[in-house]
Amino acid sequence: MTNPIADFKKADVILLTGSNPTENHPAIALEMIKAIRENKTKLIVVDPREIEMMQYAEVRLRPKPGTDVVWLGGMMYVIIDEDLYDISYVADRTENFMAFKETVMQYNPEFVERVTGIPENDLKKAARLYAKAGRGSIAYAMGITQHTFGTDNVKSIANLAMLCGNVGIEGGGVNPLRGQNNVQGACDMGALPNALPGYRSVSDQKTVDKFEEVWGTKLPSKPGLAATDMWAAILEGKIKGMYIVGENPVVSDPNSKEVEAALKKLDFLVVQDIFMTETAKLANIVLPAASFAEKEGTFTNTERRVQRVRQGLDPLGDSRPDWKIICNLSEKMGMPMNYDDPEKIMEEIAGLVPIYGGIHYERLNKNSLQWPCPDWEHPGTPYLHKDRFTRGKGLFQPVEFTLSDELPNEEYPFLLSTGRVLYHYNSGTMTRKVKGLNSISPEVITEIHPLDAEKNGIADGSMVKITSRRGEIASRVRLTRKSPEGFVFVPFHFGETAVNILTNDALDPIARIPALKVCAVRVKPA
Fold first, then answer.
1. Which end of the chain is more exposed for a tag (fewer CB within 10 A), N or C?
2. Of 115, 11, 44, which is closest to residue 73 (Cα–Cα)?
3. For the domain that residue 510 is a member of, what is the CATH number?
4. Is residue 44 classed as helix, strand or coil in its secondary structure?
5. Range of 484's domain?
6. CA–CA separation, 319 vs 325, rounded Å?
7. Half-sphere exposure (CA, 13 Å, Cβ side) for 248?
8. How far apart are the C-alpha atoms of 161 and 156, rounded to whole Å?
9. Distance in angstroms (rounded) separating the CA atoms of residues 306 and 188
């Protein structure tokens, strides 16, 4: 997030899209609701489903899935056409505006209504509300990113925020809501195929030299594979072994039958986790890891906030903290890692990663800190790009609309989208071991519109078969108008009814994120 969670209460308007925070990010949803009730913040919600946050919204837009570039382009068309954009901000702080404008002016409201189903007047109302606000915040999540054009969706959001001068101010910003407690921290520390810690490129020889000197070993200078590209590489015989830490791709990755086939083809699979997951059951070796309550360290949350994690329990059985397991393995492989504790690792991070340069346990014992925090005296950075962008001027990027990789047809007439429910978390590794949560949400429930159910002879609470080009599952259904006609929604937490058997593994060409939000299926009574 460019801005802290607390900034939602400083916003005049929040544009929420591709996210269902009352179920997926409930703490953030509470902050948004508080801002609406106490500070009169206006809310625009854009989502194909009628999510709970729509009851708090001034404007509700329900586009067809996979048309985000079009409605975002339409909002920017209205803002430019009616001279509502921040002219001085665009002139002083951005570049490439004219090329961007030329593309945006293709998205007139009539075209947007034809493609997205959003009424022209509703689009204009949303555009005017966002543009006229003194401080506008945009919050989004995987409903925006999990498409073959997810990168284009995010570029469009950045374009809209810059167009109205909402980047680099309190109460504004472009704010992706991370799905897990330390996703941000993992990326910060180099858990990406093309980056070393601190987002420095593996192709930057000066940076590589510095890390090689400190670590005392040679490092590769070419980017590796994205996780989503590894399954094909295994099946092609290019990868023989794999080490999976805290991940359950047999349930969470698209086209999961192919994922399982790839894992079974490996010569050697190691899984490090706190429970025996569906993926761990396929491993040659399982390394039992300690949970968050059994270890020391830090998490970096969605707002770039680095927080101390303190051990409250002794690790169970033979389990160990992740850092110890990795250090032990490294030593066995001839590369000793001489860290006495996580604090020593944090000191090395501060010395190698400029954005973490001032983050030390001595300071974290008292308060959390938001990066960039380059030195001991720096207080941390609540919001990014205050006076200038990292690259200097913000770059407007023209974005052309492309269709989803897989659309409904006569054989597969429905669009399937996956997501979460309030009571479970990701692949259910932890939450589905909780008796109370299982009693509330014991099985997969598929949402389908009553009119679609009537046409297909489907009764509320009955079992259906859902079939895609990749597989088939059986699920109980709930008839609801939350989901639009022609659309079904299925949560992905349930390994015994793994919806990702169905989903499409087509990837965004830049970010390599799969198209989990749009998949063509048919639905029939079981």
1. C
2. 115
3. 2.40.40.20
4. strand
5. 414-525
6. 9
7. 22
8. 9
9. 11
Per-residue model confidence as pLDDT tens for the chain (526 residues): 999 999 999 999 999 999 999 999 999 999 999 999 999 999 999 999 999 999 999 999 999 999 999 999 999 999 999 999 999 999 999 999 999 999 999 999 999 999 999 999 999 999 999 999 999 999 999 999 999 999 999 999 999 999 999 999 999 999 999 878 899 999 999 999 999 999 999 999 999 999 999 999 999 889 999 999 999 999 999 999 999 999 999 999 999 999 999 999 999 999 999 999 999 999 999 999 999 999 999 999 999 999 999 999 999 999 999 999 999 999 999 999 989 999 999 999 999 999 999 999 999 998 999 999 999 999 999 999 999 999 999 999 999 999 998 999 999 999 999 999 999 988 889 989 999 999 999 999 999 999 999 999 999 999 999 999 999 999 999 999 999 999 999 999 998 999 999 999 999 999 999 999 999 999 999 9
* Tokens matching residue 80: 């430019």
Q: Is residue 314 part of a domain?
A: no
If one counts the domains in the chain, the total is 2
Show the 3-state SS of 479-499: ECCCCCCCEEEEECCCHHHCH
**CATH, residue 76:** 3.40.228.10
Residue 348 lies in a domain: no
**Helix axes 150-163 and 68-81, enclosed angle (nearest 10):** 20
| Dihedral, 375, 377, 382, 386 alpha carbons, nearest 10 | -80
The label of the residue with tokens 């909002």 reads 75
What is d(CA 197, CA 324) in angstroms, rounded to the nearest whole number? 19
In a domain, 226, yes or no: no
CA distance 128 to 122: 10
Backbone phi and psi for residue 444, each to the nearest 5 degrees, phi listed first: -65, 130
How many whole angstroms separate alpha carbon 210 and alpha carbon 219? 10
Class of residue 364 by CB neighbours under 10 A (exposed 0-12, middle 13-18, buried 19+): middle
13: which strand partners? 42, 136
Strands (E), 238-284: 241-245, 268-273
Among 479, 449, 442, 483, CA closest to 462: 479
Whether 280 is covered by a domain: the verdict is: no
Give the C-alpha distances (Å, rounded to integers) separating 283 from 70, 265, 271, 276, 473: 44, 11, 6, 10, 25
Domain boundary among 142, 177, 212: 177
3-state secondary structure 103-121: HHCCCCHHHHHHHHCCCHH
| Final residue belonging to a domain, choices 177, 201, 223 | 177
Both tokens of residue 326?
A: 């990795």
Instruction: Reduce the DSSP state of residue 467 to 3 states and report it.
Output: strand
